[in-house]
Structures are given as structure tokens and as C-alpha cells.
Write a structure and sequence with these properties.
elongated; about 25% helix; about 120 residues; 2 domains; alpha+beta; single chain
Length: about 120
């Protein structure tokens, strides 16, 4: 996807100041902080680790990805967050170690970690 962007788009995606907000799995709100005025915030759709669409006019009218899509694609933590799958129980992850013990291996567990988790530094 990044390889399909023109040189100007690649440079702008790298040099301009962006902020990112995860709206939902697969949806990232990209705001261009390089501008003083409002209205430079767009949602980028991410599917299977690739930005595939943006609601900005540049994506609608030009060939290839826009700078918002490239900005998401070149920032690995943002791209990874966009792919995160929500936890079905409302976000309360259970710290389960490889031995099947629950609660022993998280940073706030009531017990010391089991040996396997300690050795793996979990």
C-alpha cells in the first residue's frame, strides 16, 4: 500500500504532525495537527493490517492512498492498535499463564508468577 503512494504523499505522511485515535477496531481517526484550523480530521479504515480507505477528498479523487492512510501504515503501533480485537467480556482481560493458572502472571496479580512466566519475563 505504501509503495503505491506518490513521493509527495509519502513525504507529507512522514513530515506533517498527526495525532491518532482508535474509534473502533479497524477505524482510526487521523488528525493533521500541522494546521491551526479545524476540519483536518478523517477516519481511516484498516483491514488485515492495511489501510484500505479514508474519508478525505484526496483519497476520493486521486489515485493511490492518501497521506492519512500512509501515516497510519508507517506507524506500526497505530497500525497494530487498529487491528486489536476487543475482548468479549467488556475489556477485562484475564491473566492466564501457559500453565493454565489465572491471575498469577499479570502485573497486579495476587500471587508471584509461576516459574514459566517468570522465566519468560511475563
Amino acid at each position: 500500500m505504501v509503495g503505491q503512494a506518490n513521493e509527495k504523499t509519502l513525504k507529507r505522511a512522514q513530515w506533517e504532525s498527526f495525532s491518532f485515535e482508535l474509534e473502533a477496531p479497524g477505524l482510526v481517526r487521523v488528525t493533521n495537527d500541522s494546521y491551526d484550523e479545524d476540519g483536518h480530521s478523517y477516519t481511516v479504515n484498516v483491514e488485515t493490517d492495511v489501510p484500505v480507505a479514508c474519508e478525505c477528498k484526496a483519497f476520493e479523487y486521486q489515485d493511490g492512498p492518501c497521506k492519512h492512510m500512509v501515516a497510519v501504515a508507517i506507524r506500526e503501533p497505530v497500525l497494530m492498535a487498529a487491528q486489536a480485537v476487543p475482548i468479549p467480556d467488556g475489556g477485562q482481560a484475564k491473566n492466564t499463564c501457559q500453565n493454565g493458572q489465572t491471575g498469577c502472571c499479570g502485573p497486579h496479580g495476587d500471587e508471584l508468577p509461576c516459574f514459566d512466566c517468570y522465566q519468560d519475563r511475563r
